[in-house]
Please model this.
Amino acid sequence: MKRFIFGTLLLTGLFVLSGCGKKTASPEELFLEYASLLTQGRYEEMYPYLTAQAQEHIDPETFAARYRNIYEGMGASDIRVNFREQGKEGDKKAQTRLVPYTLTMDTVAGELTFEMSALFKKDEEGGYKMEWESQDILPGLAHTDRVRVVTTPAVRGQILDRNQVMLAGEGTASSVGLVPGKQGFDRYCGGN
Model:
């Protein structure tokens, strides 16, 4: 009997304690986790942060492949995510919360910076999930859009003087240089 009472009290205590202090993560905290995965290229692990409605429109494999194809195609590296000032802190009990941020990355086209916002909605359990769309990859990107990166090597134009004589243009340039002490001039200039 004592074991039964002790076991019941222990299970009740564990049950009560498991619910105590359980804090729902804020949208900002969730976005920090999401952004950390993004900067590490761990796209598959970002999928559970999406709302059920967003997950209805894209499966985990397509979601990860879309990020991977676009970012790798752009040669994206050194991805940085920084929160922007929100003005006033949002209502802690609001059904939706907007998290403004700046996305910066190095690409084959140089450094790109975008001002973006992530929308978080409360789910059935009272926690927040990200209402994801393709424009969360790049601003203005629709679900049906594709991104293609084409690099075109620059061709030097000609610079002509007023008499149409080329001053600069495509061609081969030769250069000759001397390294002091390496030419053997010492024997002619009083050296050994």
In short: The radius of gyration is 30 Å. Confidence is low (pLDDT under 50) at residues 1-20. The longest strand covers residues 110-122. Residues 2-19 form the longest helix (18 residues).
